[in-house]
Fold this sequence. Notes:
By secondary structure, this protein is of the alpha+beta class.
Amino acid sequence: MDVNEDLIKKITTKASIPIVFRKYINDWPLCRWDPQKWSSIFGNTKLPFRCLRKDFVSDEPCWERRCREKIMTFESFLETINTSREWMYFDYKYINKWIKSDSELWKEISWKQFGYPDKGAPDTTLWIGSKGCHTPAHQDTYGYNIVAQVYGRKRWILFPPETGGLKPTRVPYEESSVYSELNFYCPVDLDRFTGLTGARVVELSEGDALLVPRGWWHYVQNLDPLNISLNIWLPHEKDNSTQISEALIKLLIAQICKDLPPETSKLLVNPNEDDISDTPLAVLFLQLDTVVKSYLDKKRKSRRMKRQKTCEDNTQETDVEEFDLNSLLNKLSYLEVVPAVSSSDLIELIRSNIKEFVVKEKTPDEDETEGATSSLCLTKAVIDAFSQSNVVDMVKQNLFAKLGYNS
Length: 407
C-alpha cells in the first residue's frame, strides 16, 4: 500500500490509542549519529542537567524540586554516564533556545514525514539523558504528542485518560500538566499499584516513533546509558476550552502562592513556574479574558455555520472518509498498537526497576523528604479539590452564563 503524508497525518489526528511507528524514521540522518557526532553538534555549550541519585526511594514521584542542577558540556556528560551514581536529564528543551539555526541538527529536523511539512526545529523539544532518568507519570492537557527516538532505548508506560487509581494532582503545579502521585520509578510501597488496570507498555529504539493521543497518561524512563529523543506537541480542537480551565487554575494557585512563605509556595509549583506568585493579578485576568474571548468567538462562528447549513435548500452528500485504524494496521506493517499489560506484569516491571537501582532494601533518607509535597496536606488538598475537572467545568459554565453566552 502506498503511504502518503496525508494518511499518516490522519492517523496522528484521529487515533485514540497510542500507536508505534516501528523504524519509520530510520532514514533520518539523526538516527545514525554516534555520540561523538552529537558532541560536535553541542561543542562547548553548557547544558543544564537535572540530577538525582539512582537509588532514590520515595513514596512520592521524583519531583523536579527534588533534583539538583548540574551544568556541563555534552562531552563531559558522556564521560560520566557510565560511572555516575546519579541519573542526569537535559529534558524538555526547545531546540531554538539551544541550537543555532545554521546548525546541522536544526537543518535535519522536519516533521514532514508525519504530514506536518511546516513543522521543524523551532517546534521541537530535545530530551537527552542517562540510564534511569525519567519523567514522572502525568497527562498533558493540551494537544497530542509525536515522539521520535533517535538514540538509545526508552520505555513508555501509558494509561487511558479516564483511568482511575492514578491519584491525579496539580501539585506541583505546571501549566498543562496533571501529575500522578504514584512513583513508577522506585516506590516504597508496591501495594499502591495493586488493581491498577489499563496500562500499555512499549520500548522505543532509534528509528521508532510514538503517537501519544490527547490526554493519555505516560511515565517515561531511559533504559540505556545514553538516550536522545525529539518530540513535538500538536494542537487539538479541544485546546481552546482547556486553555480556559488552565487559566482558572493558574489564577487560584497564583493567589494561594502570593500569601504563603516562599519556601512553602515553591513546593506548590515546578521550578519553571517559580515566578507565578510575582505575576500581577491584572495579567492573570488578561490571560483569562484572552482565552475566553477566543473560545466564545469560535463557538459563535460554529453556531452561525450550522444555522447556514440548516437553511440551505439543497441537501449535500457528506464527504467524510471513514477512519478505519484496524484496516490500516493490517496494511501497514510498521504500525503497532502499544500492547496492554496486566496489573501484575506492571508491578513486576516496577519491581525490576527497584532491583536494578536499589542495591539493598532501604527506606527514605532525611534528604529524600526534601522537596516532597506531602507536608502541604491541606493546601494541596484544597488546590486539588478546586482543580477537579467537574468543578472547573461548572465554573466555566457559570462564567459563560454570566457573560451572556448560552451554549
